[in-house]
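User: Batch of two.

Assistant: Item 1 of 2:
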Amino acid sequence: MGGRFDLFFSNAALHWVDDHEAILRGAAAALKPGGRLMISCGGKGNAHDVFLALRPEMRLQRWREYFRQMPLPYFFIRPARITNGCPNGL
């Protein structure tokens, strides 16, 4: 059974997804034959300076308990990894 959409578009959201392979497979399944997948997101190292600036604040006594066990919210994939991980040559 083919997909239903001509386009799957995601902007600045893929870094919140833990399982990139699953989202790419789901997007591919939702596309019509010849449909397009367009994803825009930061790459590896993209938020490095932001995390460097936030780290001292996150360690302050008043904030520490909130950040201590918080999973890192951003996952910026390396371009080669996403190219190699695309199902069906997307």
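Item 2 of 2:
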Amino acid sequence: MDVSTALTIAGSDSGGGAGIQADLKTFSAFHVFGMSVVTAVTAQNSLGVHGVHELPPAFVARQIDAVLGDFGADAVKLGMLASAPIVAAVAGRLRHHRVEGLVVDPVMVAKSGDPLLAADAREALIGEILPLALVVTPNLHEASVLAGIPVETRAEMQEAARRIHALGPRYVLVKGGHLKADAADLLWDGRAVMRLLGGDRRRSCPRPPAGGRRPRRQGLRAARHRGRLPAGPRRRRPPPLHRRLVS
């Protein structure tokens, strides 16, 4: 029996709370076959990032070719890309393999405040990765960097989503987890349609040092949509956002 597949291209988190480790755990929980391409290796725990070792861009590209040239992928999720050369290498291989279900989590800073994306890589991310994306999922800080404006309110989230959408992705999901009010996300599809997804704040322990769960779920929805057969039982009815992202 064929199952849906998803590829994560991201950094390795030694603490297991983010990066490819968290992505693969999420893929497995949703009964999607997960594959990984490592862009960088971090020495990381709940206290912070204690070191980062970037892999050579050519080797990152070789990993992508090995996976997509054999298994293929119903969806690809991008996380930490670390540097401009790695961004360029990843973008080139995604174009070569004509990846369509691309979910971009523009990881820039860990929750501990440690930088995970070089300053010169931001322009490369905007120019080479965002035009390829089905959906991009920035938090407030990342949305501010991508849009070039402060993003602290719902009105600013809306304006940032418009600006980011103009950079090329089909959908923009601005995550509102850092809002001072309720944690509500905002979806922009380029057709003047906004959807706010409210939710109660919840404490969890340990807190992942970087990344987030929602981009992983978007990748899984894309994978299931593009996969040959649904994978596994559905534990709950998916919200309208996910149905729209893969329509």
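DSSP finds eight helices and nine strands in the chain.
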